[in-house]
Amino acid sequence: MTDTALIVVAAGSGTRLGRTRAGRPVPKAFAEVAGAPILEHALRGVAGLGASIVLVVPSGFEADASAIAARAGVRAAVVAGGATRADSVAAGLAAIGHARLVLVHDAARALTPMASFDRVLAALRAGAAAVVPVLPVVDTIRSAGEEGLGAIVDRSSLRAMQTPQGFDVPTLRRAYEAAGDARAASTDDAQLVQALGEPIVAVHGDELAFKITTPADAARAEALLAQEAGVAEQATPAGQTTGGAAPELRTGIGVDVHAFGGDGALWLAGLEWEGQGLAGHSDGDAACHAIVDALLGAAGLGDIGALVGVDDPRFAGARGEVFVRAAVALLAEHGWAPVNVAVQVLGVRPRIGTRRDEAQRVLSAMVGAPVSVSGTTTDGLGAIGRGEGVQAMATALIRRP
Fold it and tell me: Least packed by Cβ within 10 Å: which of 42, 157, 366, 385?
């Protein structure tokens, strides 16, 4: 018998997602993305976890949840949630029986990879009472008030929280009892445990564990799931068919160069680095810009200049992510989806290899497909070799059914 329980919280209303059925709003976990409910995608992702599973769903959707679990290939107890997220987690806690460890996971983070669950469980089994997966905050953050925007907040000390969050069961139950009515305002279980004075252990999260909350999030999830299906289709052994025509494949190449000398931060491969920034109308992220040209070139849709213009004031200082996501959206409008991208950065600095894994995660999340990153120098030759700037070259493979 397993000593671990998994509570999947799926009781959200989904108002911001905006999906309806027969003219009525559909609870978020039951809204369809890529041909299946979000909850079904979430359960398929935990089918091999080996934990007892409790689903917490809106009242009246218990039968639907049981049917979804069966399709996903998991056995799960189903209970009705409450008025708040904390009430729903409490209902799940009451149904986990004698488990020693519990993971609390949002169904809306339906693409969370198994590696995130493994990292949380490993920390729990090493003796932690509470574990949360986190990611660095990469956007510029400002405080805000009634009088408008305030000062920029130092993001180096900020972390974005994700799920699954893991706990020693007695500790989490004690936190909920101690919180009393105040728990209604909480949207994070670790916050309640921290109020007891218990330390919270952080492990690295994953870009794929984003929360499907808005239509844009749903579109991103659909693109990633379509890519996953495409890879599976291409991996079908010779002599077997998937019942459809072979997809159309195209490749593209992109190159971009920026000199040092920008007034802002140094952005490259979707990450902020120490040192002087790259000059350019936007953030000068040569890697992102090369990826855009590779994607657009593969589809015959021009280049980054045609996409957003080279001096449009709306994109002054804009992050490379803005352009990458715009390119992926334009591809989707023409029926194309990225299969994979490779980008190589040439330059004396920054040293790409020191943050390669992080860059690959960030860029893959932007593209909605695997992105590999490498770095090299020119052995001192030319302007790049003298450290005057950075060059990036990218190749992209795209597909259309």
Answer: 157
Cα separation, 173 vs 178, whole angstroms: 9
**Is residue 228 included in any domain, yes or no?**
no
Q: How many CB atoms lie within 10 A of CB 309?
A: 12
Same domain? 60 vs 196:
yes
Give a yes or no: residue 330 inside a domain.
Answer: yes
CB 133 within 8 A of CB 203: yes
Runs of H (alpha helix) within 310-390:
320-333, 356-367, 382-385
Q: How far apart are CA 202 and CA 111, in angstroms?
A: 20
Cα distances (Å, whole numbers) of residue 346 to 77, 245, 281, 293, 351: 53, 39, 21, 17, 10
64 falls in which pLDDT band (50, 70, 90)? Answer: very high
Residue 204: name the closest of 147, 279, 258, 136 by CA. 136
DSSP 299: H
Burial label, 166 (beta-carbon count in 10 A; 0-12, 13-18, 19+) = buried
Residues 68-77: tens digit of each pLDDT: 999 988 999 9
Task: Tell me how far apart the alpha carbons of residues 371 and 352 are, in angstroms, rounded to a whole number.
Answer: 14
Residue 47 CA to residue 368 CA, distance in Å, equals 23
Residue scoring higher pLDDT (15 or 321): 321
CB-based burial, 242-263: b 16+ in 10 Å, e otherwise: eeeeeeeeeebebebbbebebe
Q: Which of 96, 82, 102 minimizes the C-alpha distance to 193? A: 102
Q: Which domain holds residue 294?
A: 246-400
Helix (H) or strand (E) run with residue 291 in it: helix 286-299
- At residue 43's C-alpha, the angle toward residues 42 and 45, to 5°, is 70
Q: In whole angstroms, how far apart are CA 27 and each of 4, 70, 172, 222? A: 27, 19, 27, 18
Yes or no: say if 297 and 266 are a contact pair by the CB < 8 Å rule.
no
State the CATH number of the domain containing residue 66: 3.90.550.10
CATH code where residue 292 lies:
3.30.1330.50
pLDDT digits (tens, 9 = 90+) for 188-226: 899 999 999 999 999 999 989 999 988 888 888 888 887
The one-letter amino acid code at 304 reads: I
Torsion of CA 244, 226, 369, 7, to 10 degrees: -140
The dihedral built from the CA positions of residue 58, 60, 66 and 68, taken in this order, carries a sign that is negative
